[in-house]
Design a protein that fits this description.
The structure is a single chain. The protein is an alpha+beta fold. 36% of the residues lie in helices and 30% in strands. It has one domain: 2-Layer Sandwich (TATA-Binding Protein), CATH 3.30.310.80. A hairpin with a 2-residue loop joins β5 and β6. It is elongated, with a radius of gyration of 16 Å. It starts with a helix and ends with a helix.
Length: 132
């Protein structure tokens, strides 16, 4: 009986991870960081760039598997993408913002404490895609 209850709890948790709503105002926040950083659950990258660089990053972000726009637009100068893991569908949020001649990128997880380097890797991919 306890086994069935635990199984139902795990299934319920997995379903919640998949269907939990994403608050665009919370996740599409301004990026205050001015230098690169990496933590257990997030990464930040700051590069020199302009609107053309931003557009290249945007195309690369949308080409990532299981990635879609949560909020914002290239025209607004800020876009937040949601990327879900393959098996379970854990959401990660990546915000890209053009401020003057800087492009600031902030990728972070929603659930848990460690992303196992996934957000760092995603930003490194986007930095490479920014090059003409």
């Amino acid at each position: 009986m306890i086994g069935w209850i635990l199984l139902l709890l795990v299934i319920g948790l997995l379903v919640y991870v998949r269907i939990a709503p994403s608050d665009a105002k919370r996740w599409n926040a301004e990026i205050d960081a001015t230098q690169d950083s990496t933590t257990a659950g997030s990464a930040t990258r700051v590069i020199v760039g302009d609107a053309a660089t931003f557009a290249r990053i945007h195309r690369a972000a949308l080409a990532l598997p299981r990635t879609e726009i949560l909020s914002g637009s290239v025209e607004d100068g800020k876009v937040t993408y949601i990327t879900r893991s393959n098996a379970i569908g854990f959401p990660d949020y990546t915000t890209v913002q053009l401020i003057g001649d800087q492009i600031r990128m902030f990728a972070r997880l929603r659930f848990g404490t460690s992303d196992l380097g996934v957000n760092r890797g995603r930003l490194e991919h986007l930095v490479r895609a920014a090059q003409p």
